Amino acid sequence: MAELFRRFGGGLGTLFLALVAVWLAGMVLAPNLTMIDYALRPNLPPAEIGGQRDVYSLDNILYLANESVHRAIFFKTVWASALVTFITLVVCYPIAFWLAQRATPGQAAVVILALTIPFWINEVLRTLAWYILLAFRGPLNALLLVIGIIDEPVRWYGDIGVLAGMTYAYILFMLFPIYNAIESLDRSQLEAARDLGASVWRTHWRIVIPHSKAGIATGCVFTFMLAAGSYVAPALLGSPGSRWFTEIIYNWFFEGGDWNRGAAYALVLLVLCLAVVLVTLKLARVNLTDVAK
């Protein structure tokens, strides 16, 4: 904060802080407090709101604990989001290392541009592109049939389609934090490790990964939270047997008309995401200041 006032002066610095405070109050604090209020109150007719039955309780949250189907979908969303995070990390880490330490500036610019251009369009359109790609008579099945890997078209919709679509949708949120972290690594450390006879695996395990742990933790947090809260990919690429927890929340709000129970489900998902953030930062021994960088 002192640096802000030093760079921009008292008047402009105060204006910036005021704008941030208004944004946090209006876009973060107020919606979440409203969600908590809805989650802890019963779904009542307008005439009974404020009456004797309008009291705070945990009934809406406990309903999730007692509803076996919704509870199963919740835990499935948790592990599936973790799987999306892991797959995205496995895909992005070697790309980030190559871009940061091996690629020439021209090669890095071309690859980053190629990865970024598809994200200039809406997420819905990108997901629809995957819907076409994975269609029963789509390009993927046509290619696999020509190569001879499969004998008849495969229905890719469901868990496989959702995992593929999410991995692609959130790849940049994993790639860029890791890339920024590895880019600051001094190449002389890698050369010293190679001169001392360290294998590639040992070099990454002892040098690259510890140096880039803040970027890895940031990418994992972003990817998990986006995957757990995603609605477009499960709705378009999923199947009845691969429902996502966000679809249950959507149904409560817009089909069931029970905003209180929908808010309770959303609150449980929010608490889960916050817990994942804290646990991830704790395991990686990274603080919020490192993530903010």
Brief digest:
By secondary structure, the protein is mostly helical. The protein has a single domain, classed as MetI-like (MetI-like fold, Orthogonal Bundle), CATH 1.10.3720.10.
List the helices and strands and how they pair.
Layout (H helix, E strand, L loop, with lengths): L1 H38 L19 H8 L1 H35 L2 H12 L6 H11 L5 H9 L11 H11 L1 H13 L3 H9 L4 H12 L1 H16 L3 H6 L7 H11 L3 H26 L3 H5 L1
Helix pairs in contact: 1-14, 2-14, 3-7, 3-8, 3-11, 5-7, 8-11, 9-10, 11-14, 13-14
Textual characterization of the structure:
With 293 residues, the protein is an all-alpha fold. It has a single domain (73-292), classed as MetI-like fold (Orthogonal Bundle), CATH 1.10.3720. The protein has 15 helices and no strands. α9 packs antiparallel against α10 (200-211), α11 (213-228) packs antiparallel against α14 (259-284) and α13 (245-255) packs antiparallel against α14. The radius of gyration is 23 Å and the shape is globular. The mean pLDDT is 88.
Question: Which key features would you list for this structure?
Answer:
293 residues, mainly alpha, 15 helices
Q: State the end-to-end distance.
A: 15 Å
Rg (C-alpha, Å)? 23 Å
CATH architecture: Orthogonal Bundle
Could you tell me the number of beta strands?
A: 0
Subcellular location: Cell membrane
Pfam families: BPD_transp_1 (PF00528)
Transmembrane segments: 12-33, 78-99, 105-121, 128-150, 156-179, 214-237, 262-284
InterPro entries: MetI-like (IPR000515), MetI-like_sf (IPR035906)
